[in-house]
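Crash report, auto-generated. Payload:
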Amino acid sequence: MPGNPDSTRTIKIDMMARVEGEGALHVTVKDGQVQDVQLRIFEPPRFFEAFLQGRHVNEVPDIVARICGICPVAYQMSAVHALEPIFGVEIPQGIRDLRRLLYCGEWIESHVLHIYLLQSPDFLGFASGLDMARSHSDLVKRGLRMKKAGNHLLTLLGGRSVHPVSVKIGGFSQAPTKSALHALKDEFLWARDAAVETLRWVSRFEFQDPEQTYTFLALRGSSDYPMNEGDVMTNQGHHMAASEFEHHFHEVQVPYSNALHCTLNGRSYLTGPLARLALNQDRLSALAKEFLQSTGLALPFNRASMGIVARSVEVLYAFDEALRLIENYEPPCTPAVPVTFRAGVGMAATEAPRGLLYHRYEVNTDGTIRLAKIVPPTSQNQRRMEDDLRNLLPGILHLNDQETARKCEQLIRSYDPCISCATHFLKFTREEVS
Amino acid sequence: MANIKIIGLGNSFAGDDAIGDIVARQLLPYQSPSVSVIEGGLAGLNLLHEMEETETLILIDAVHSQSEAGNIVRFIAPQDLDKIGQLTWGSSTASTHAFGLGEALTLANTLELLPQQVILYGIELGHIHPGEPLSPQVSRAIPLVVLRIVKEELGQPTCTNSN
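Recovered output after restart:
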């Protein structure tokens, strides 16, 4: 219901109450124009920064793996890559390959969950993944089987199916046997075919949200599609080592949220699958390139909703890349290189499923953490989400409250932020002030 | 093949939300060829993968339901799915983009993946402050839940050296 043109319309959308923290979308409209958009998202990683202080660096991989049930590998990878340069550790290629394989498992698990149970219901007109499962059980079962394939990698390389425990500074506590990895091949061949079908399926969805002008930010390495390695790049000409990240990107406290907003020279930018694909399409495998091209969709994707296509391309790539790594696998002569602790500062960024994850650690001489800083992707994308909503709202203000909230919710969910699980995470209230 | 699977859920670093994993650790001595015990953490939808080849699934999680801290509740699925879905479970709150416990069980039920018997123990949490120890009431609930699971669900005498 549009407000009186002469009045101020305040749209307050409170997120589902959780035990801890809160989030909300607060929109102010005056004279039919969107005046202000404020998005609040609660961020668990912030608590862990303080929690890590005083802990020994050996504990860090296990602690950060517990920040999130969906992307423990990302937290572990950013942590070990930030810490290892402090100790002068050189990681051999065999261990780097195993880490990449582990990351493939996480991308698969996280992306498939989002594609099949969180975002596709929005395109197909279902209220939730649960609703969709009632009438499309075969489709959801296909997604779950693909997800399980990713989970096999986590179990095998990480030592358990959730919160992997085998990742350590210097490598792994143990490396898998060749036969154990080869045993996954048949299922991965099936899953790669299923990923092709997934990409075909989602590329036919209708993408109706407004086109945006994005500043894309992602890692870009010398040869591979980025996971653990590469410099930080944007499509606006920025190019820097991860260690320079904090020189260019600044976290700002906004009065309406407990989350910090990360900005590039004071402006929003986008990290995640859309950005990775826009900046690294030439780094995809031949197979992923071929099927991306066959969708007929042109890059870069400039709509948030098209994240589902980018994720599907990355799932196909991750299965293809995992098969390549499995095929070429030779167990490393040692699963971990020895590490001698010393004081110093280290930074790294890796590509978590939902975007760039930056860590910085300051370590004392006794190997304890003096300071930890974690900049998660959702904090980086928060300002961009507000900008997207600002562009979306003028076209939907004529809708009733429920529909306005639903459209906003869908846009936010397409980012796969740390709140997208709750299908109806936006509770809508409206206040009109004359 | 283990046909009884026990999974503790929750975030070990978020105060009382650690209770599920702690109870699971205390049940490790009862593992056998037919009983497996897993510290499931924030398993989310991975629970569905764990249901395969399992006849009885026993889950332990912290729950937030406005009752007294340390209070123990027991549900069975699919019969109690509505009640389970109405409560806030610890493993669903610490990582908000995972599927919640109620949603995971409901999805499993819809897809006909639930094991023959699913039993869920909930322990009312007091606080979930990161890095802080369990509240005393929740600590006191640990041996009670362990005892109930061992005696009532596994039908075994308790190990004399386990607590």
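Post-recovery validation: The interface with chain A takes residues 11-13, 38-46, 48-50, 64, 88, 90-100, 103, 106-107, 110-111, 125, 128, 130-131 of chain B (CB under 8 Å).
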